[in-house]
Amino acid sequence: MDSQYKTIHPVKYLQDHLAQNVRPDGRQFLSFRSISVNISSITHADSSAIFKIGSTTVVCGIKAELATPRTESPEYGYIVPNVELHPLCSPKFRPGPPSDQAQIISNLINNILINSAAIDLKDLCICKGKLAWVLYCDLLCINYDGSAIDACVGALTAALNTLTLPEVNYNIETGNISISSVKKIKLPIKALPVSVTFAIFDNQLLIADPTDEEESLSLGKLTVVLNKEKICCIHKPGGIPISQDMFLKSLTKSKKRAESVRSLINIAMVSTEEEMKK
C-alpha cells in the first residue's frame, strides 16, 4: 500500500514524511548515506575507481596519452573529464547524444579541477610546447539515485590519487620519444576536492545527500566543493534562494563530510597497495 501511495502521490508522500521530521528512507534531514570506494578495479585503464553513495554508483577510468600541448598553454598538460548518464542507470535518461545534465556535470568537474588546484598541470608537461600528458577521465554512472556530482567527483579524485605515469624522455633535436616500461612516476596530488550536495524545500528546509526522488521534488539544489584549505566551488542551479544561516549550516556539514570521504579514499588506497604487494 505504501509503494502504491508513493507512485500515485509522490509529492504528498514526501511531504508527509518531511512533516514528521523524517525522510522516506529513514534518515534525518542532515544525515548522509554510506559510501564505499574500490580502487584499481579496471585492469585496462591507467587508473580507476568505483565510488558509491547509497545506491548511486559511478565508475571512473583514466587513460593517459601523449600529445602536443595546447598553443595557449605550452607548459601544461590537460585533463578531459567526460560524464556519461546512460538509460541503464536510470529511466529518466534516453539513448543518444550526451544529455544536458551530463554535459553540465562534465563542465562542472572541469571547473572543480581548475579551482581546487588538485593537480598542477605543469606536472603533466614533458617538454614545453612539444610533448605533454593528456588524461582522459571517463565517468560512467551505472546506477543513478541522486547526488551524482558528489559520486563523480569522488570517483575521479580516488582514481587520480592512485595514478602513476611511465617515465618519458623526449629528445628535442631528433623528436624521438622514449617511454620506460619499468619506471613509473606517481602523479602529485595537492588536494582532494570533495563535493557535497543538498536539496532545498519550503521554509528553508535543507536536506543533505538527496536521493533522485528528493532532488526531483525539491525547489532548489546546492553543491559545495571543498579541498582541505578552502571552498573551491559552489554550484546552485537556480531554484529558490538559500538563507545565510542555511548556507553556513551546509558548509559546516560539508566540512565534516569531506573529512570522512578523504579518510575513506586514503584507506582504500592503502588497502589496494597492500594487496598489490602480496
Could you give a quick summary of the protein structure above?
The chain is an alpha+beta fold and 278 residues long.
What do these coordinates show?
- The structure is a single chain.
- This protein has 6 helices and 12 strands.
- With 278 residues, it is an alpha+beta fold.
- Strands 1, 2, 3, 4, 5 and 6 form a 6-stranded mixed β-sheet that branches. A 4-stranded antiparallel β-sheet has the order 10-9-11-12.
- Helix 1 packs across helix 2.
Q: Which descriptors would you attach to this protein?
A:
single chain, 278 residues, alpha+beta, 6-stranded mixed beta sheet, 4-stranded antiparallel beta sheet, 12 strands, 31% helix
What's the layout of helices and strands?
Elements: H1 2-8, H2 10-19, E1 35-39, E2 47-53, E3 56-67, E4 78-85, H3 100-116, E5 125-127, E6 131-143, H4 148-160, E7 164-170, E8 177-186, E9 194-201, E10 205-208, H5 212-217, E11 220-226, E12 231-235, H6 244-277
Helix pairs in contact: 1-2
